[in-house]
Amino acid sequence: MGLTCFDVMVSPEVQNTIHPEESVAKAFNIIKRSRARFLPVVDHDGKYVGVFTAPTLLKLILPKAALIGLEHTRVPLSSLGFMSLSEADFNARLEQLKYEKVGDNLSNPDNIPVTAPETPIMEGIFLIHQYKRHVILVDPKTNRFVGTLSANSLLDHVLAQPEETENANSE
Fold first, then answer.
1. Beta bridge pairs of residue 120
2. Residue 59 contacts by C-beta under 8 Å, 6 or more apart in sequence?
3. Which of 13, 72, 95, 146 matches a 20 to 30 Å C-alpha distance to 79?
4. Mean per-residue pLDDT for 17-21?
5. For the chain, what is the radius of gyration of the CA atoms?
6. Please, which residues bridge with residue 101 across strands?
7. Which domains are delineated in the chain?
8. Burial degree of 155 (CB within 10 A; 0-12, 13-18, 19+)
9. Is 74's pLDDT higher than 90?
10. Count of Cβ atoms closer than 10 Å to residue 84 Cβ
11. 14 CB contacts (<8 Å, ≥6 apart)?
């Protein structure tokens, strides 16, 4: 059998995850510390629930008025010039996020590609290309989160092999 998504994934031991009942403030701290763009959301049994993303976090920081009508069109950033946000206001917004639950703020599942770990790598690459984001790997029998596939995990796998070969040959 050829290379699968499982062969080049970021494992759950490396991939940061979060539980749905955790606060958005905790998600913010994980995203800030790890510089992640997303966090798979899993329950206490390791079952996949959804994804919380950095853009969702930014959406929660924006005033609700700034988001009116965004489901149909994108407003140029320059049109928000009348709004301002002081450091105190920003910190107050972050404080409010302590009361928001991650599970109530998941990304739209239609925008998140999910596939089985045994999926051939070419299909995984196609999903990354099609959705322009990571792919979540979930065991279809148990619905347990298995890992993520990303352009970086692919490159790490491909680029690590020649380097390892060079090191072994030079010894």
1. 4
2. 67
3. 95
4. 97
5. 19
6. 23
7. 5-170 (3.10.580.10)
8. exposed
9. no
10. 7
11. none
3-class secondary structure for the chain?
CCCEHHHHCECCCCCCCECCCCEHHHHHHHHHHHCCCEEEEECCCCEEEEEEEHHHHHHHHCCHHHHCCCCCCCCCHHHHCCCCCCHHHHHHHHHHHHHCEHHHCCCCHHHCCEECCCCEHHHHHHHHHHHCCCEEEECCCCCEEEEEECHHHHHHHHHHHHHHHHHHHHC
Measured distance CA(31)–CA(58) in Å, rounded? 12
pTM of this prediction?
Answer: 0.80
- Does the pLDDT at position 170 exceed 60? no
Closest CA to 147 of 139, 158, 155: 139
Q: Which two tokens stand for residue 20?
A: 């749905």
Predicted confidence (pLDDT) per residue in 99-114, tens digit: 999 999 999 999 999 9
Q: Which amino acid is at 100?
A: E
State both tokens at 107: 């990304």
Partners of 148 in the β-ladder: 10, 136
